[in-house]
Amino acid sequence: MADASKLKPGLVVASHGRHVWVETPDGQRLICHPRGKKSQTVVGDQVLWQASADEGTIEKVQTRRNLFYRQDEVRTKSFAANLDQIVILIAAEPEFSETQLAYALIAAEAERIRPIIALNKSDLAQAFERAWQRLAVYRAMGYSVLPMALKPRGPATTIPVVNPLDAVLQGKTTLVLGPSGSGKSTLINRLLPQAQVLTQDLSSALNAGKHTTTSTTLYWVDAQRTTAVIDSPGFQEFGLQHIEPMRLASLMPDILAHTSQCRFYNCSHTHEPGCSAIAAVAAGEPPADAMEGNSAFIASTAYRISARRYKIYSDLFTALSQKRY
Length: 325
Hints:
single chain, two-stranded antiparallel sheet, 3 domains, 325 residues, alpha/beta, Rossmann fold, CATH 2.40.50.140, Ribonucleotide Reductase Protein R1, domain 1
């Protein structure tokens, strides 16, 4: 057992395999290795470590506020811990997967992390308008949806384009998440011009090879180290095998809004008679100009569940109910 008097605090700022970079309170960084065969640390972890030669050994991971991760039938992929919020970056073109978006939102809700949807390519007027309308149901649920144009290429859309992330990020620890092709690398390089150089330094230090970057990396936006952005790999699938099927409705605000009126207390909202969620789907689509972010409206009988959203719910509920233990 490690001598408690020799333990020092640190923050995990990058990871690659079993190696991590730990930053000390005074801003110094060093390579640390977990004690034991399996690493339990992720970027964003507060840890206690002990020096060993010019490196260190992680002796303890402090209690986390949250842990954002995905899980499929084969493995669990942890993104980061102790987050204030997640920016989910999607693009108007190519067309984004609403299922992937919904799954990321569910994972965020499960850990009580605030999600922010950023829609890129607002300069592509027609494609952007279509995507913006697809996101109407998410705005109606109260999610922040921000228009962005990371690489302007034509006449601006009628929706005002600003750079909304500066104020959103300030003083927060934010994970930037997005599928390949969404513009995530462009966003990171725009926010953090030094990110590419830092990533190369980290890869070299962690022996990752010059063509391989670390899986996840934390960057400080300001010199005071109060605003952090965490870059993560792109993804094409987002497993939710860790979500219990009967919990699913509580993690989807539009479904949850109708569950209190169901006839049965253990309603799955998939087939039962007297299910108010199913009735809300049958009643039609929500209006495009719904009262965005108005919880009273969402809970009212005037609010309707999108057929697209309900299909995502029912398909996922079925899949989670069939998972093997």
